[in-house]
C-alpha cells in the first residue's frame, strides 16, 4: 500500500520521528499484524473474484438458476471489498499513488485530526462504551417492533414513504433521467454480444420442439392464404411465362404449379413427419450452432444489433421507458389500495411483529443502531484537548500516519473483510428480491 522512507533512529536504536514522536518495537510488531490482516482481506477479495468468474462460467454453461445468485453475491462482494479498500487506504496515503482529492487524510490533515482527537478524548461521555450502554438500555429494537406492529403506525409509515417517493420522483428531471437510462441501456446492450445467447436459446427451443407450433401456424396460414388467393398465384405464374408460349399452356402450367404448391403446404400441415419439417429442424439446429461458434454469423448479428439500436425509433422507446415507469410508480404510491402500498404495509407489519417477539432480531437491530450511532459520534467530533493538539502538531506527518496505522490498521482491515461479506449478502438479497418481484 505504498512505500515509506526509512525511519530515523535515536541513540537507543529505536526508530523515531520528529517532535518527540517515537516508533517502538511494539509498533513494528503491530504493523506486522496489520500486514497479515491486509493479506487476509486481499485474499478474500481474490476469492470472491474467482467465485464470480466460476459462477458466470457456470451460468453461461446453463448450470442452473442458482448460478445467478452466486454471481450476484460475488460481484457485490468485490464492489464492497474494493470500495472499503479505497476508504481504508485513503486514510493513510494516496491509493495507487494517484493524486485523488480527499485522500492521504492523516498525513495531509494531521493537525486538524489532532484537534478532533483531543476534544473527543476530553469529552469521553461520547465514547463508544457510553453510547452503546445508553442505546442498549433503551431497547430500541423491541420498541420499534411494538410501534410498527400497530396497523395505524404501519399506515403512517407507508404514507410517509409514499410521499417521500413521490417527492423524489418529482424533483428528478425526466429529460435527465431519460438520457441516463437511454445511455445506460444502449451501452450495456452494445457491450454484450447477443449471438451466443440467442444460439443457446434457439438450440434449447429446437431440442424441446418448441418451434413446432410456429411451423404449424405458418403452414395453416399459408394453406388458408393459398386457398383464398388461388387466382392471384396462378396469374403470377402465368405472368412469368415466356411470351412465345400459348396461353392455354401457360394456364395449365399455372394451375399445375398452384396445385402442387397447395398439396405441398397441405402435406406439411397434416404430416408431422414431413421431410420439409425435418429440413426446418436441421436448418434451425445449424443456425443455432452458427450463432454460438461461427464468427461471420456472430458478426452479422452484432451489426444488425447496432443498426437496430441506432435507429431513432428504438432510442425514443428506450428514452420513454422512464416516463412509463415513473408514472406507474407515482400512481401506485398515490393509490392507497395499490399493490405497492399494500405490500409495503404488509412488510412493515410483519417486520414489527418479528421485532416485537424475536429477541435475536432485536439484538441485531440494536447492534446496527449502536454501530451507526458510534460511527456518527466518533466520526463527526470536531474538538480535542489542547494537550493532544500540541503533541500531534509536533509529529512528523508521515511517521504519524505510520504509527496510527500500526495501532488501528488491523481493525480497519476488518472493514474490508466486512465490506466483502456484507456486500455479498446485500448483492444476494437484492438479486433475490428483484427476481421475487419480477416473478
Automatic annotation (TrEMBL):
UniProt-annotated stretches for the region Disordered: 1-24
Q: Does the keyword rRNA processing apply?
A: no
Transmembrane portions of the chain: 39-58, 70-92
Fetch the Pfam families from UniProt: DUF445
Where along the chain is composition biased (Polar residues)? 1-10
- Check the record and name the InterPro entries matching this protein: DUF445 (IPR007383)
- Keywords assigned: Membrane, Transmembrane, Transmembrane helix
Q: Does this UniProt record's set of keywords contain Cytoplasm?
A: no
Q: Please state what the protein is called.
A: DUF445 domain-containing protein
Amino acid at each position: 500500500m505504498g512505500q515509506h522512507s526509512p525511519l530515523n533512529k535515536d541513540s537507543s536504536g529505536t526508530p523515531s520521528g520528529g517532535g518527540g514522536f517515537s516508533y517502538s518495537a511494539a509498533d513494528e510488531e503491530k504493523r506486522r499484524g496489520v500486514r497479515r490482516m491486509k493479506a487476509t482481506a486481499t485474499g478474500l477479495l481474490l476469492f470472491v473474484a474467482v467465485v464470480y468468474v466460476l459462477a458466470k462460467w457456470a451460468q453461461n454453461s446453463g448450470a442452473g438458476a442458482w448460478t445467478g445468485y452466486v454471481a450476484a453475491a460475488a460481484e457485490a462482494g468485490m464492489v464492497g471489498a474494493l470500495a472499503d479498500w479505497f476508504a481504508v487506504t485513503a486514510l493513510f496515503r494516496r491509493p495507487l499513488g494517484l493524486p485523488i482529492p480527499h485522500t492521504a487524510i492523516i498525513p495531509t490533515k494531521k493537525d486538524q485530526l489532532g484537534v478532533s482527537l483531543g476534544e473527543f478524548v476530553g469529552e469521553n461521555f461520547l465514547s463508544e462504551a457510553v453510547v452503546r450502554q445508553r442505546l442498549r438500555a433503551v431497547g430500541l429494537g423491541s420498541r420499534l417492533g411494538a410501534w410498527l406492529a400497530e396497523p395505524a403506525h404501519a399506515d403512517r409509515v407507508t404514507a410517509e414513504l409514499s410521499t417521500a417517493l413521490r417527492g423524489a420522483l418529482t424533483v428528478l428531471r425526466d429529460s435527465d433521467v431519460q438520457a441516463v437510462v437511454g445511455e445506460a441501456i444502449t451501452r450495456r446492450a452494445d457491450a454484450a454480444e447477443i449471438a451466443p445467447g440467442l444460439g443457446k436459446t434457439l438450440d434449447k427451443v429446437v431440442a424441446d420442439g418448441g418451434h413446432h407450433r410456429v411451423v404449424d401456424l405458418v403452414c395453416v396460414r399459408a394453406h388458408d392464404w393459398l386457398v383464398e388467393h388461388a387466382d392471384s398465384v396462378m396469374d403470377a405464374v402465368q405472368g412469368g411465362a415466356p411470351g412465345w408460349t400459348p396461353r392455354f399452356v401457360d394456364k395449365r402450367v399455372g394451375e399445375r404449379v398452384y396445385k402442387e404448391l397447395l398439396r405441398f403446404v397441405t402435406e406439411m400441415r397434416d404430416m408431422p413427419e414431413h421431410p420439409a419439417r425435418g429440413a426446418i429442424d436441421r436448418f434451425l439446429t445449424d443456425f443455432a450452432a452458427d450463432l454460438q461458434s461461427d464468427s461471420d454469423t456472430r458478426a452479422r448479428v452484432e451489426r444488425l444489433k447496432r443498426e437496430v439500436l441506432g435507429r431513432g425509433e428504438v432510442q425514443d422507446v428506450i428514452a420513454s421507458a422512464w416516463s412509463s415507469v415513473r408514472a406507474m410508480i407515482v400512481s401506485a404510491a398515490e393509490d392507497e389500495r395499490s399493490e405497492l402500498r399494500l405490500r409495503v404495509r404488509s412488510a412493515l407489519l410483519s417486520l414489527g411483529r418479528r421485532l416485537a417477539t424475536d429477541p435475536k432480531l432485536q439484538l441485531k437491530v440494536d447492534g446496527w443502531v449502536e454501530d451507526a450511532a458510534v460511527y456518527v459520534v466518533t466520526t463527526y467530533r470536531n474538538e480535542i484537548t489542547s494537550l493532544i493538539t500540541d503533541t500531534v502538531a509536533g509529529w512528523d506527518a508521515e511517521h504519524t500516519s505510520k504509527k496510527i496505522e500500526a495501532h488501528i490498521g488491523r481493525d480497519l482491515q476488518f472493514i474490508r473483510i466486512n465490506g466483502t461479506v456484507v456486500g455479498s449478502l446485500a448483492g444476494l438479497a437484492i438479486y433475490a428480491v428483484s427476481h421475487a418481484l419480477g416473478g
